[in-house]
Design a protein that fits this description.
eight-stranded mixed beta sheet; single chain; alpha/beta; Rossmann fold; globular
């Protein structure tokens, strides 16, 4: 059985980001992707500030209804769907819970194809074709979103919460090193972590995915939101990589919340969601 650590994020922001809620409608729908049918819900507003597709992190993730509702009430048309093989969506789910590798490049590419199928559906729901469409995702979506955006010209921007800028194999080295220890950064230095990421022996062999390879091809703007106490993602190293990409002319920004961990989009972290939406509104 293939066993790896997963970072499962709970997304339940039941707060109101606007002083005045915007009315919206919701409709369940089904759409095709790579030979299977995915099931989701679109939350539609009359004149959206932007269209947002929510992209899952790792785990057996259902559509993110609460998060989508929050965004819709704040003026965005949102599409969210059950991950393939989960809930009402067809297909086969890959993940350590079922003994398979969910960060193999084949699976990441497949999930990116699902994202693009959903983008095409979302674009049809947007009445004003000048309205920007973006991808917003969490954790593992940091690898999936760039792959999808590189293949779909309808994507105008991306927002990634707690997504790594290092490769999938390097990420595993870091997660095995932190081993879920919430006090990890009290016991280890940044130098320790970087040396381990660089030199540790890989426990599993699979085709590696390096997000930098794809990000180098993108011209759309992106925002990464990080927590300084994250033990799933090496945040300082990821920020350093972003800054190097910006030296090449990329439009990538980041926001660091020093006291937060990996779950930067949790309901108690309202400021991170506000930061993301304010950034989208400035595009």
């Amino acid at each position: 059985m293939f066993k790896i650590f997963t970072a499962i994020i709970s997304i339940t922001p039941l707060f109101n980001l606007n002083a005045q809620e915007i009315s919206y409608s919701s409709k369940n729908l089904r759409f095709k992707s790579k030979g299977i049918t995915l099931s989701g819900t679109v939350y539609d507003v009359k004149s959206p500030k932007a269209g947002i597709l929510l992209v899952h992190g790792s785990g057996q993730e259902l559509r993110m209804k609460e998060f989508a509702t929050t965004l819709a009430k704040s003026g965005y048309t949102v599409l969210t769907y059950d991950k393939r093989g989960v809930g009402e969506s067809e297909g086969v789910y890959a993940g350590p819970e079922v003994g398979t590798n969910n960060i193999d490049s084949t699976n990441l590419d497949l999930l990116a194809e699902d994202v693009n199928a959903a983008v095409n559906v979302l674009s049809q729901k947007i009445r004003n074709k000048k309205t920007k469409i973006g991808l917003m995702g969490f954790s593992q979506a940091g690898w999936i979103i760039p792959i999808a955006a590189n293949k779909n010209k309808k994507v105008d921007f991306m927002v990634i919460f707690s997504g790594a800028l290092i490769s999938t194999k390097e990420q595993l080295r870091f997660q095995f090193y932190t081993n879920g220890d919430t006090d990890f950064w009290k016991k280890h230095t940044e130098k320790d972590a970087r040396e381990h990421i660089k030199n540790d022996t890989d426990r599993y062999e699979f085709i590696n995915t390096d997000p930098v390879y794809t990000l180098n091809k993108l011209s759309i703007p992106g925002l990464w939101i990080f927590g300084g106490k994250d033990i799933q993602v090496p945040v300082n190293l990821s920020i350093e990589i972003l800054e190097e990409l910006n030296k090449k002319g990329k439009q990538f920004q980041h926001k660091l919340y020093p006291d937060l961990g990996h779950n930067t989009a949790a309901s108690e972290n309202q400021e991170t969601i506000k930061e993301a939406l304010n950034w989208i509104n400035r595009l």
